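All the exercises in this workshop are built on plain-text protein records. A learned vocabulary of local backbone shapes supplies the integers on the structure line. Once this layout is familiar, the rest of the handout is easier to follow. An example says more than a description, so a record of this kind follows:
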Amino acid sequence: MLKKVLSQKHGQGMVEYGLIVATIAVAAVVAFQAMGSGLVGVLESITAAL
């Protein structure tokens, strides 16, 4: 019974970490989309300077 309880807590922790990672990934995608063309312009100017 103790092993079952401990394994459930471990699984719960892994799910929480997965949700945190998914939230960070969604936030990163939204941030990159918001920067959009401005970021492309900066990268093009850097490429042209090289």
The first helix runs from residue 2 to 49. Helices lie at 2-49.
